[in-house]
């Protein structure tokens, strides 16, 4: 790899998001130039190693421009209202641009079947299929719940209100998204994991109440949870503007996790990075300031 931004060969989609942003941080630390795809360039701070390009999964021509000249692409499946056509459009653009390697962020739910026999994370499974059928070298990184999801509740915690819990006492292999990014960066740069679907997890299975107890310890304040039954969760997500299939996918994923389906822990982070996965406690300590706005 060269150290000039005009020589970047890696396209990072979702560059303004949690994992994409953390991949940019890894590449900056290593001095590797990258191209970063965002819908609005103003949302990403400039950096000499980052070539920011505007593009949208809903605009195939913008994906052609973004993939031109690239060797490897980090494929983010858009959250909220994910559509398989997004991933297919990116894969098509990458293939025509001569990209050789795809690294897709997926979810552990893509490998799971619910009680009705259907795939729980069907949108990720459709995207995985687009990537593995691309004819390019590929790696699928399946991740469970991100530690960073707790940032959504910072305001509630700050106001002393309970955190909504859709997964009861179901444990999940909660992962620090910085570990997902570090593994993705390794795959993009070296090709490690090529041809594999890899389940990444944190070091221990944790329930939401386990995470809350840990965060309460780190912040030195009481934090409570409130169970949210599926119908109430459904109504809240619908009124927040999520489309019906996405809402049903989240509800199915939560039911699966509540039943213990996502409690698996793997050693993949250690075997790829040569060090153990970060704990939720370390993530909480590193993000303490985000939870201490006023009252903390
Ligand atoms: N959170 C979890 O616990 C978890 C666990 C496993 C897997 N995942 C998966 O991880 C993915 C989300 O990753 P993340 O948390 O890093 O992202 P994120 O922080 O939710 O940010 C979403 C990113 O998607 C981009 N995006 C949205 N719609 C787009 C479009 N139409 N065209 C181009 N870009 C678009 C956004 O870019 P803009 O700046 O343009 O808005 C943003 O960078 C999802 O596929 C989710 O299912 C999440």
Structure overview:
This protein has 296 residues and is an alpha/beta fold. The protein has a single domain, classed as Rossmann fold (3-Layer(aba) Sandwich). Helices cover 39% and strands 14% of the residues. The chain contains 11 helices and 9 strands. The strands form 2 sheets. A 7-stranded parallel β-sheet has the order 3-2-1-4-5-6-8, with helices on both faces. The radius of gyration is 19 Å and the shape is globular. It starts with 9 loop residues before the first strand and ends in a 10-residue tail after the last helix. NADP nicotinamide-adenine-dinucleotide phosphate binds next to helix 1 and strand 5.
Concise synopsis of the structure shown:
The chain has 296 residues and is α/β, with parallel strands linked by helices. It has helices at residues 18-30, 60-67, 84-97, 122-132, 154-158, 177-190, 208-219, 230-239, 244-258, 268-273, 280-286, and strands at 10-12, 34-38, 50-54, 72-76, 101-107, 137-143, 163-165, 196-199, 225-227.
List the helices and strands and how they pair.
Elements: E1 10-12, H1 18-30, E2 34-38, E3 50-54, H2 60-67, E4 72-76, H3 84-97, E5 101-107, H4 122-132, E6 137-143, H5 154-158, E7 163-165, H6 177-190, E8 196-199, H7 208-219, E9 225-227, H8 230-239, H9 244-258, H10 268-273, H11 280-286
Parallel strand pairs: 1-2, 1-4, 2-3, 4-5, 5-6, 6-8, 7-9
Helix pairs in contact: 1-6, 2-3, 3-4, 7-11, 8-9
The site of NADP nicotinamide-adenine-dinucleotide phosphate has 22 residues, from helix 1 and strand 5.
Protein name: NAD(P)H-binding protein
InterPro entries: Ergot_Alk_Oxidoreductase, NAD(P)-bd_dom, NAD(P)-bd_dom_sf
Domain NAD(P)-binding: 14-188
